[in-house]
Amino acid sequence: MGLFRDTSVLFPVSIYSHDRQKELESLCAWHVCNFEFDDALHCARSLIKTADSTGNDFRKLSAYAFAGQAYMAADKPDSAFIWLCEGLKLWEEDEDRYVKTKGYSELKSSTICLRERLPQWYPER
User: Fold this and answer.
1) Domain boundaries in the chain?
2) Looking at domain 7-121, what is its CATH homologous superfamily?
């Protein structure tokens, strides 16, 4: 378990605020970069929940990408695929709206990374 498991202590703002979502997004990225997969997934799930409650699909797109990255880093490609597919389904609903967002660029790079690493995980395919 990482240092920042309980994010409410660090960021004592409303769970529904834009600031809270921005902090969770940053925290997800931080945990992924530091190979703290459980914490990254915890943050991603929290971000999805708060983004759902406020209708902020831009942040939700980022959360799916970060969760996919965490699973890839943990060598769990099947789980990474599921999370990235959820993000791609969301993106396909309104491609023009999302194309220039941070969440889209995270999702795109994560999907490319997964595609490049699949032969490593499944050499017979």
Assistant:
1) 7-121
2) Tetratricopeptide repeat domain (1.25.40.10)
Residue whose pair of structure tokens reads 């969301």 in the numeric block: 90
Instruction: Name every residue whose Cβ is closer than 8 Å to that of residue 4 and which is 6 or more positions away in sequence.
Output: 10, 27, 30, 31, 39
Give me the tens of pLDDT residue by residue for the chain, a chain 125 residues long: 333 444 444 444 344 455 777 777 777 778 777 778 888 888 888 888 887 887 777 778 888 888 888 888 788 888 888 888 888 888 777 777 666 666 667 777 777 777 777 777 667 65
CA 103 remoteness from chain centre: 8
CA distances 19 to 15, 16, 23, 56, Å, are 9, 8, 6, 12
Q: Among all chains, which residue has been given the structure tokens 């940053």?
A: 26
